[in-house]
Structures
1.
Amino acid sequence: MVSPKYHRVEFGSTLVRALHGPTTTDPYEEHMTVNTQPVADRPDPRAFGLPVVEQDQIPDELRSLVAGVRSLVEAVADTEADPATLAEVDETVRALTDRIATGPRQVGTMVRRTMADGTDELGTITNIVAGPTNPAAPPLELERVEGGVQGTVTLSTTYQGPPGLVHGGWIAALLDQAVGSASGVETSPGLTAKLEVNYRNPTPLFTPLEVTGKVVRTERRKVYVSGWIRANGQVTAEAEALMIRVPMEEG
Ligand SMILES: CCCCCCCCCCCCCC(=O)SCCNC(=O)CCNC(=O)[C@H](O)C(C)(C)COP(=O)(O)OP(=O)(O)OC[C@H]1O[C@@H](n2cnc3c(N)ncnc32)[C@H](O)[C@@H]1OP(=O)(O)O
């Protein structure tokens, strides 16, 4: 049973009121048996009023559009086209935006994807680091490894801080995602209470970055997780994080 405290959960500016805990007949629970955590100990987003989309149900056309818009953002960020061309493209982009603006999805819409090893993972569909429908996300696709998760991402100038380097805030964002995901798949989903980042070496753009999160230990709802970013085999940043799992018991 999800704690009453979490029957009111704020996701950004939206107050999500979950009126009922998960029901025992919910088919969603049957999909969660891949995880080591017993199904009853994992929260069902729908009990919080949050819809769940299956990642493989996202239309190929939307995936392609997301990738195209990501390329557009990169092209815009770096363009030196002449003003007449810019004005023409601006008008076209605005017209296209009007065509696809069907209204926002419900804030907090979740996506469930199955990792390569068969583990199910839940995330928000527009998550800024890994959301599959978010062109502003790099995106980082993490896979299960022993004790946590790992994935590779290559960042362009859209993520630039110092010349040729990834912005420090984005380094923290990648690490936050990795530790959050590691905690989620190894235990159950939670929120980051603390994230300490050590920037050991510059993190380069246009270079495959290996991003890792591994659970170190768990104490009740507290999950201690470490994270690393490596470029060309060298650690560029590391993190120590404390995740707090969504409570499943009263109190
Ligand atoms: C349906 C489910 C959906 C889930 C979606 C997941 C999506 C994931 C996406 C991933 C995206 C990436 C991730 C993101 O971007 S997460 C987004 C960034 N993080 C946040 O916004 C979190 C904001 N903070 C909070 O909401 C609360 O403070 C939390 C939830 C963290 C704890 O408040 P809560 O009232 O629940 O906890 P409690 O007071 O009962 O304490 C419990 C225990 O924890 C210990 N403690 C607490 N805080 C700290 C601290 N700062 N240092 C040390 N210890 C701390 C406390 O002493 C106690 O210990 P003990 O007495 O047991 O020893």
Note: The pocket of tetradecanoyl-COA is lined by residues 43, 45, 48, 123, 176-177, 180, 189, 191-194, 220-222, 242, 244, 246 (CB under 6 Å).
2.
Amino acid sequence: MDKVLIRGLEINTVIGVYDWEKTIEQRLLVDLDMAWDNRQAAATDDYQYALCYETVSNRVIEKITEKPIELIETVAEMIATTLLEEFNVSWVKVVVNKPGAVKQAQSVAVEIERSQSASQAS
Ligand SMILES: Nc1nc2c(c(=O)[nH]1)N=C([C@H](O)[C@@H](O)CO)CN2
């Protein structure tokens, strides 16, 4: 399966469950694996057939910084939904790292995979 990947997308936003977290911005690092058939873009060397990683990155940042969020699980789900609905990717893996969350850990993260057929499932 072809994919377009984004690694370490930095999002500074209001994120967290505790009161003190609701008054500051914290850094999230997001990794995205998006299923995309790259053959037509490669064969034609034409941008219109590519899944633009820059457009995706900008939209994800815009979406996640719109309002405060408590859980990184919510961030992951919002990103997956955006990619499935707005960019029509058939499958996506989203990893959301919150590197500052646990002092003793390099990072903590959640990982989800979603696809078009499963996007409406509970
Ligand atoms: N599974 C999760 N556990 C926790 C989260 C979270 O988003 N998902 N968040 C917090 C706090 O906001 C924490 O990051 C403060 O350091 C705790 N556990």
Note: The chain has one domain: 3-115.
3.
Amino acid sequence: MKNLALLTDLYEYSMANGFQHYLPQTRAVFDVFFRKVPDKGGLVVAAGLQQIVEQLQDFNFSADDLEYFRSLKLWDEDFLQFLANFKLECQISAVPEGMPVFPREPLITVSGPIAQAQLLETLILNIFNHQSLIATKSRRMTQAAQGKPIMEFGARRAQGPDSALYGTRAAVIGGASSTSDVLAAKKFHIPTAGTMAHSWIEAFPDELSAFRKWAALYPDNAALLVDTYDVLQSGVPHAIQVFQELQAQGHQPLGIRIDSGDIASLTQKSRALLDEAGLTSVKITISNALDENIITSLLQQQAPIDNFGIGEKLITSSSAPVLSGVYKLAAIEQNGQLIPKIKVSNDLAKLTIPGPKKVYRLYYEHTQEAFADVIALADEDLIHSERITVVNSNPLQLQKPVVLTNFVAQPLLHPLDFSQKHPVPTDVFAIQRTSQRWLDELPIETKRLTNPDIYPVYMTEALNKLQKDLIAH
Ligand SMILES: Nc1ncnc2c1ncn2[C@@H]1O[C@H](COP(=O)(O)OP(=O)(O)OP(=O)(O)O)[C@@H](O)[C@H]1O
Ligand SMILES: O=P(O)(O)OC[C@H]1O[C@H](OP(=O)(O)OP(=O)(O)O)[C@H](O)[C@@H]1O
Ligand SMILES: O=C(O)c1cccnc1
């Protein structure tokens, strides 16, 4: 793993240098949260924590890094010594990967010496924003696919190697089943998947001999690409011929892939041809710039699709290419006490929620149904409360008090124990399954792909009072 301590905006170092001068060892609390869900969706699937943890476990500066810093002539030797001796002293709490999360709630909190905590901003956001974005997109596509597997095919179209590698991991957290990206498959223990490219068919004198050569090499997992010349006139008939030859030799033919044309009509007609030939177990995979809308439409058209191969629109989240997670100061120590801080912007949407906080998911008693999240002050205990008064946490909406009773509150943020080798779960399919369980707990209307209901994210009355008091002063 590369140490990415320098993958940070210059100003973080400039501030850290200043904090070492003026506020050495002063404790501060920062929150990571986002304000808007991509694609006008109802929720984001949190991802990236494993890579964040790995980076923080190895956050240090080499002699070469320090030489480079020295050459910039921006900071003094004391600061370079501080970097040379850097040992993470921050406490970090975070929502687990795969957790469905909502705007404004703290998802990662970093508490520690301000110079250290400030230095982590850019890298934490870079990883969290990227992986959560792709996990969220993958969740949308998985939901649209209604249980049919999604194969991640995006490496060639991802924005560079890291986006392919970690984007694939995030795509699995969001629901993808396999990947064509061998590096991601090896690194994250994801099943590999793949068919063939048009070049294979073009490289041989004709389609039939290209299929036969492939079948001879891979008799038990031959997936033939049938759209190089003509799907119905040539590709599928040739595939049927080769599959019947394979069957005669005792093999079980795998499938075909269609990558162009009217997918609904081509899959229907191909399915009919395969079935007529007795090849009912041959699977149909489709690809070609698929997204959640096309998948929904194809399934509405009753297209008999078994697998979706999805590249560019998943790995780049091209319809919504940014998750704008931010890292904001919530509190800073003065005379041994944490003083809540707020950013009051001209833009009301950018108002921050001050102070050290906790987040709870509230469930109806005796059910596994979640009905709201509540942001509370760190010293408010909702687990043992029977009745709380809350207001909408969105400053752009009416903040009328609401009384909540008969709930069970579960904290969402969990402290990371850096004394362990693996402070967070690393099995991506276990994370995917847990994520699905958490999604199952949410109201169905909040999970619609279009115009979802807004899942309530409240703040406690006490937190709202603190916010108002700080705005007033
Ligand atoms: N029946 C269908 N309903 C909805 N969308 C479809 C249907 N068939 C194909 N599509 C989608 O429409 C888009 C355009 O398909 P089309 O075959 O015209 O693609 P193309 O990119 O021009 O083809 P090619 O890959 O051959 O260049 C693709 O994203 C494809 O997935
Ligand atoms: O469309 P995506 O969702 O990104 O899926 C992956 C695409 O990658 C391959 O295309 P290739 O690079 O061979 O180019 P093509 O557009 O000519 O098919 C494959 O045939 C898919 O079309
Ligand atoms: O294996 C495939 O079919 C594949 C892999 C990457 C991109 N497109 C297709």
Note: The chain has 16 helices and 20 strands.
